[in-house]
Amino acid sequence: MSKNLRASVLAPLAAFVLVSSAPATAQPHYLPPSGDNQRAAVTQQVGPVEVSISYGSPRVVLKGNDRRGKIWGTLVPYGLTALDFNECKSCPWRAGANEGTVFSVSDEVKIQGKSLPAGTYGLFAITGPDEWTFVFSKNTTSWGAYWYDPKEDVLRVTAKPAKSEYHEWLTYEFTEREPAKATVALKWEDLQVPFAIAVEDVPARWAAKIKDALRGYTGFTWQNWQQAADYCLKNKVNLPDALDWAQRAAGPNFGGANEVLALTTLARAEAANGKEAEAAKTWEKAVSLPGATSFQIHQVGRSLLAEGKTQQALAIFQTNAKRFPDQWPVNVGLMRGYAGVGDAKKALDAARLALKQAPDEVNRKSIEGAIAKLEKGDTKIN
């Protein structure tokens, strides 16, 4: 190779080596991660909202170097720091290793009580011994924090660090989970820093997703229209939609016109929308269907009890008893119906009849438990 050719090849190679030694150069994805800081991710649904965090996960003991006790305030400096690249003079921590930490939400949430719109954000942290600030930034693609710009901040929230069980690898964990809220914590070494994520108007948001789903393949069976209406009725949201969906479920197009469940859901939707006269006729039609079974009618009564409509539930159980005398689970329904309205004596009479008809040990034990309560005058039975 000529000297000129050798120089033309080695010059850019030398430049590459120099640049690659700078902390802002990303490790190619086809090679092992720099510093063994493996990429990790966690996803959690909070209500109908999907929350995801993707991050580089460093470890405490690196190639024999035990850094325990040297993580916070040393390896991860407190406060904002001046980095030796890209003239970043007041930069937070990348809240992980290597590439930036990425936080995504599929819909609007509250972080520590403050609104964060749907989207994908770079997650940074300003650490401190007593308080941290998490920063949600529009900057999602940069390596680390070298290109951090406070003008790209979307949200800042504070959180309190606390003692944690030991974590060799930096981890994000959802430590508390409820249908409408969750807590996620950054955990590394002996420290955790949790922050709260909450979703408002969860039933309404689910209803919106249901409405969208019914426009697709989901909307071609009466069962899906019925379940959609049932969700709204139980959660008292989107009641006009619930009526529309129940009408579709019980209509001629999808096969629900002669289904007890479709018709009783329609009756409930009519009543919820102030159409009491129509609801009464639909109830009568539902429990009088030639193909209705005692179990189907029983389930109608159970649904009404779950909604707190005790008198209406008792009427359904009584109708079931007239139509299907002495069938299982008619007497169980009467037991629950009378207990629901506070009549312990009649509930006990029905329970004793039901006990003789119990089809298996599980039901027998359940009824025996109910009898023990009813004999004491306690009508709060499961």
What would the keywords be for this entry?
382 residues, alpha+beta, Serine Threonine Protein Phosphatase 5, Tetratricopeptide repeat, six-stranded antiparallel beta sheet, 11 helices, 38% helix, 23% strand, disordered N terminus
Gyration radius, rounded: 31 Å
What is the number of beta strands?
12
Q: Give the proportion of residues in helices.
A: 25-40%
Report the structural category: alpha+beta
Gap between N and C termini, in Å? 89 Å
Low-confidence segments, given as residue ranges, are: 1-25
Topology order in helix (H) and strand (E) letters: HEEEEEEEEEEEEHHHHHHHHHH
Give the overall silhouette.
elongated
Q: How many helical elements?
A: 11
Largest sheet: 6 strands, antiparallel
Chain oligomer state: single chain
Identify the strand order in the major beta sheet: 1-2-5-8-9-10
Beta fraction of the residues?
A: 15-25%
Average of per-residue pLDDT values: 90
Number of structurally distinct domains: 2
